[in-house]
Prior knowledge:
The chain is mainly α. Helix content is 73%, strand content 0%.
Amino acid sequence: MALKIKSILAKVIKTDHREDEMRAIVDQATAVEHKIKAIMASVFKIDMSEINDETSSDNLPQWTSLAHVDFVLTLQKEFGLAFTDSQIVEELLSFRTIVQTVTAALNDQNN
């Protein structure tokens, strides 16, 4: 009986630990998205509420080539990352892909 209780407690503790890990991952992802939105809002001089998954260089008139350079430099500084040329011209052109690229780079950095 005591062994069964220990086994159940171990499973509960393991489940709680996994839930805590998942909560931390979600919190980190939310923080990354918020920080990217704040940077975009500042560089492109728009309100954060205007930024969504569809926001891109194609539909934001303020996203000029000069603003893009400023944006990329700010992203690199704020997150402590360095993007490749191909990332800069292919992946950092919409909010959705920026979040994916930054998240992947942060994960690589932490591993």
